[in-house]
Design brief:
Radius of gyration of chain A: 23 Å
Number of helices of chain A: 16
Shape of chain A: elongated
Largest interface: A-B, 31 and 31 residues
Largest sheet of chain A: 14 strands, mixed
InterPro entries (chains A, B): CPQ, Peptidase_M28
Helix content of chain A: 25-40%
Distance between the termini of chain A: 9 Å
Number of domains of chain A: 2
Structural class of chain A: alpha/beta
Oligomer: homodimer
CATH architecture of the largest domain in chain A: 3-Layer(aba) Sandwich
Subcellular location (chains A, B): Endoplasmic reticulum; Golgi apparatus; Lysosome; Secreted
CATH superfamily of the largest domain in chain A: Zn peptidases
CATH class of the largest domain in chain A: Alpha Beta
Family (chains A, B): Belongs to the peptidase M28 family.
Keywords (chains A, B): Carboxypeptidase, Endoplasmic reticulum, Glycoprotein, Golgi apparatus, Hydrolase, Lysosome, Metal-binding, Metalloprotease, Protease, Secreted, Signal, Zinc, Zymogen
Subunit structure (chains A, B): Homodimer. The monomeric form is inactive while the homodimer is active.
Chain lengths: ~475, ~475
Amino acid sequence: MIQMILLSVTCLLILSGEVYGAPKKRKTYSELKSCDLGNLAEEIASYDTVVKDIIDYAVTGPFKGKTYNELAKFVDKFGPRPSGSQVLEDSIDYMIELTREEDIKDIITEEVKVPHWSRGEEKLTMLEPRVKDIALLGLGMSVSTPPDGITAEVIVIRNFTELENIGENNIKGKIVLYDPVFITYGKTVAYRSQGASKAAAKGAIASLVRSIAPFSINSPHTGMQTYEKNVTKIPTAAITLEDADLIRRIITRGEKVVLKLEMTSSYDDKVSRNTIIDLKGRERSDSLVIVSGHIDSWDVGQGAMDDGGGLFISWAVPVILQRLSLRPKRTVRTIFWTAEEVGLVGAYAYEKQHRNESNNINFIMESDEGTFAPLGLAVGGNQEARCIIAEILKLFQSINASTLIEEDSPGSDITVITSKGVPGASLYNDNSEYFWFHHTEGDTMNVEDEQELDQGTAFWTAVAYIIADISVDIPR
Amino acid sequence: MIQMILLSVTCLLILSGEVYGAPKKRKTYSELKSCDLGNLAEEIASYDTVVKDIIDYAVTGPFKGKTYNELAKFVDKFGPRPSGSQVLEDSIDYMIELTREEDIKDIITEEVKVPHWSRGEEKLTMLEPRVKDIALLGLGMSVSTPPDGITAEVIVIRNFTELENIGENNIKGKIVLYDPVFITYGKTVAYRSQGASKAAAKGAIASLVRSIAPFSINSPHTGMQTYEKNVTKIPTAAITLEDADLIRRIITRGEKVVLKLEMTSSYDDKVSRNTIIDLKGRERSDSLVIVSGHIDSWDVGQGAMDDGGGLFISWAVPVILQRLSLRPKRTVRTIFWTAEEVGLVGAYAYEKQHRNESNNINFIMESDEGTFAPLGLAVGGNQEARCIIAEILKLFQSINASTLIEEDSPGSDITVITSKGVPGASLYNDNSEYFWFHHTEGDTMNVEDEQELDQGTAFWTAVAYIIADISVDIPR
């Protein structure tokens, strides 16, 4: 903080519009902000050699292709890793063993009680005006239908205002289909997460939602939804853009659509684990720079993109630093969050358990919006914090990853911690097609690119190293 | 033909590279070809007013949106229309009625014996190294598996040369997975159409093929395959790019992959119909200009793109000419081919039945590679024929549809007729994403664009009108 006053070098916060499809609201800045870093700018610039070494090691050197290949081995071996499943626990054990093989010893896990919602049989059939199978994915925590299913007429709702204004007689006993226009994920996802209870409150007996996505090859997208208290829990599922459009067109022509929905699911609580890997700092080991991703996934696809990529670039940070004998002043901590998909459960547990140590987190980073070509960081924190990070990002021009965008609430899991005033950042990457695959059977290795993962690994490692090693703490 | 000698205007055949993903080999020309059309060029240029009238009528006038809306009503009502199904026959009746409502009287159908292959239950499960459901679509004419399915180890084959060179002991009793690199559809589809028999000849007990597509969201692509005589008929299906890659990666790591394939299907012969709609010529009604698309589809998706779009722009030709009281010298004939997907069955029947009239076909056109933004025509025929068509295409610069590409064998159904020396063309359109959706559940109205369909309708109608009305026949 004191250094701030002495500084003279200009640091630019780079402008950015709202990122297409980004899951979080981002602020758009229409003017440059300037800040003085003085001698700190020179200190940061002096890391250019180590940045180059790390990029060389990960992108063209011995680590080239390693992130992709380890990720592929992992997701091919385990497939999807839903919260509460045995396969998730097995995959956690595997990651611990993989890390130990790198001669990294400081690995602990912390137990977390997690929900275990398990999909059973799911079938949706259009009965009128003609018989047609409709692809679906039940939403997280959905209850089952009765054994004979639910057969009812559909009413199409474009937005919650329309729902509020419609007479209960028009909804009672029907299946509500939410058919919102996709704007961004953040602006549209409420129809998935809140739709069932809002429909039930008006008397609907089941609800469907147009998948929260801008593009589809008849691909349903699952995801979490939450039942409100004191409202009947009705079965709820996502259907494809194609079938939502089909049903809306038929009804718009004045015909009645009748659907039969059959779903089963089960629910219980299980114990899972957050995984914590420390590369102890050489001077201030109590001060933490955290890099993280979540190890659980939805129960479709391979969870390669969401969030296998974030998991593995965060795994690579201590591995590369260890291999290059780079030991920063502060401790670099990697966290593999558990049970993110069902409500940031691992992150909440970590925050609670470590609350009294929270001042020890100097900076926290998360990658959970894809690991496509890295472009920079989405940074939360005060202006001085952003100035320092922007100065660090200048060192990544060679891989085109120097952009800082200002984000009040970066990431997903880490919002639990940044909301307490801890500065942090999420990976800003070229993820314009992220929501084509998100929470679908298409979230597989085919979405991942070896070279982009190498760049992400290099970027993530070098940024964490510099923040953990510079003379100043990140101001808050 | 005589006019050719008198001509002086230069006509350019526009250059074109190979179209990405195009189903047919196209010739690429590295130099401009010139040809003299003389007075005919002036005559063709005089159609500029009628071209403008037709474009105005279809793109901004009373027909605006009509092609899209009629196509949507049609595919929403019937869904997929496989060869031999009752729904295909019902959809043919519907199209006849829709045409009659336009006060077009000259409509006949011609019966055709068609194959009726019907998909039953299909399930593919990876048993080793872990249990995983694998999305699949059985290929056309595939036999069923035994009731208990086929459980066997997989061998991955990249190309037919590899298959030929491999010892029979390595294949016998196994499931062959063809995993070819997608180059173009035309260059890769042999692995789908011939793979089963080639694998069976080496002792395989079932075969799978990586879907013939450049992009996927876990989307299997079905399609026709043909069993060779004197080779055991083995069950065969397509799997997704993602699962083909998964299986190859696992095997490359030295692990064994065991799959269980369960498929049922049935087969019989049925009678279907080609539909022929004539707008009789005012002077030479025995000379035909044919526009066409096929009305059958695969049994997945809606068959909106393949070939609902081609069907409806061909339907629109006589409708618009009738509405605008444009009656050309020659007869404009619209044909809705039946049973294209199972081997051009309707086209072969038509060619046989009308063989002795074949000189009456002045020019034949087909749209079966998408109805995205029209770019021009892919033209088969001699140099003089191409010169005339290229001159006509100059009239479509306002909608950017003036490109002629030279194609020895344009279209799919019409190759049956152009191979006899009849000049013809297929719609050349902006279809770079065509094979993302082709033969999948994603072939729905969501692929179609209202404005592009309007442009396609205008283009198709005006081109057919001019060719049917100009003073010269298309030379052959």
